[in-house]
Design goal:
By secondary structure, this protein is mostly helical. It folds into two domains: 3-37, no CATH class; 47-80, no CATH class. The chain has four helices and two strands. Strands 1-2 form a two-stranded antiparallel sheet.
Length: 81
Amino acid sequence: MNRDDIIKMAQEAGIDEPESDWMYWAAMERFAALVAATPRQWVELTDDEARALVNRVTFGDRTNWQALVYMVDAKLKEKNT
């Protein structure tokens, strides 16, 4: 979703033409519903990002797998929220 998509949704919800406080909030609720209902594309880690995370938790021939799981989880949340 890009800026133009969001502007289009706001216009469909009537946000660009508030006539009263009540109507403005009703439009905001419609806009929020449109945004929430819009499918989002899952963003994966690139190969370079995955390698960088593995390198951060690998020491010689030992890998801290628990730390890797937490780091991958945090990176995916960062990219997808």
